[in-house]
Write a structure and sequence with these properties.
By secondary structure, this protein is an alpha/beta fold. The chain is built from 17 helices and 17 strands. Helix 10 links the parallel strand 6 and strand 7. Bound molecules: pyridoxal-5'-phosphate (PLP). GO terms for molecular function: DNA binding; DNA-binding transcription factor activity; pyridoxal phosphate binding; transaminase activity.
Length: about 475
Amino acid sequence: MKRYEALAEEIARSIRDGLLRPGDRLPSVREASRHRAVSPATVFQAYYRLEAQGLVRSRERSGYYVTRSAAKALAAPPEPEMRVPPPSESTELDVSELVFEVLESAMSRDLVPLGSAFPSPELFPLARLGRSMASSVQQLDPWSSVDDLTPGFSRLRRQIALRYLVDGMHVPADDIVITNGALEALNLCLAAVTRPGDAVVVESPTFYAALQALERNHLRAIEVATHPREGIDLAALAEVLERHRPKACWLMTSFQNPLGSSMPDAKKQALVELLARFEVPLIEDDVYAELYHGTSRHLPAKAWDRHGLVMHCSSFSKCLAPGYRVGWVAPGRYRQAVARLKLTTSLTTSAPAQHAIAAWLEKGGFDRHLRRLRRTLADQQATFLELLTRHFPAGCRVTRPSGGYFVWVELPPGVDALELHRRALSHGISIAPGPIFSAHRGFANGIRLNYGHTADPRTGPALATLGKLIASAM
Ligand SMILES: Cc1ncc(COP(=O)(O)O)c(C=O)c1O
């Protein structure tokens, strides 16, 4: 056990034994570091871990406090084990059809959307954003259709660059390319650095659209084992880089979809250094970056990039404006290749949408909205896990991400996720079954559930039904 894990475990024990009660403040990082003769970084890591477990919550400029739901969090199911490693060979892809089949079956508004990839649209200030769009479009310079061609509206790129700056990252506005959502950014990056037949590293499990993109481009996938809390296994990745010489890695370093895992900073730095050693570009999908549940943002791997190898992709789709299709990429040394590909595939991104979001960011208020959104999602996760603990049978294991809006559930051995998906649909519930996240159709007993709709009163009864279906399949 590492030092920070031992410290976190000791504090969790004090909470379990009632020594630390809800509302109690943990010792400050400086105090804990002095008393226990460990570095402040170790204490921080321990506190982050407790925060990710829902046991403590940080309050700005005040410290870490035991949460009201700590006792319930301690009673929650254990973390998934992910016992079966992915195949060590690269895989030719044939999953797209299954992904479409599952997604198309789950699109109806009548279903309880536990399998949805989207948070509830009710969480976004869409009416106010619409008014902002109306006024910014009225003032739109007719020449904007020419001036704002790729790389995109300069005032929007400046606002994005300023947000990087707040994180201590120097990403000039000229190094940013505006795209139609993050998905276009990711696809352009993939096209910029690969040719048909190349191998690309993905996490295991991974976001299904990455697998579909690889399949469409006739690329091979190399899946690398991924820890449910700390992300991709760097030792396994190093072996893959040595043996397969892949042309790119497509990863999510924070709030990974579907697991919710986040790599600690030191691991992100080690990842960037490892990839630099092999000169392998990283396509970093960071769409959930703004949805952290604690008080501080997780830096992307891009923050440690000294060689321009990291292509950082994100968007406003998950944090502000779903449906506006405004995303971006900071492609490092691949900027020109990505911008040219963007010009030849979709020319540019909708000018009204770019202007509306730029006006919104310039006006201020984005951070206020984000603070509310993060608090809501953190509360929804606590409620969701409480319901899940109550209704799911023993033997289920679940992740407890520190951001985003997904949890990954490992079902008891023998329960088939695809069969459960079909049975759940017949009860009006969608879930996302494990095999759609895997190039080799693994994770037969894994499911991804969306807690971003927990305000929907159908959630509790749906989880009760799902629990019964799981129990009956055991
Ligand atoms: C992990 C991940 N990456 C990228 C995307 C696509 O983002 P956008 O809607 O901005 O294209 C999604 C959307 O579901 C996603 O879940």
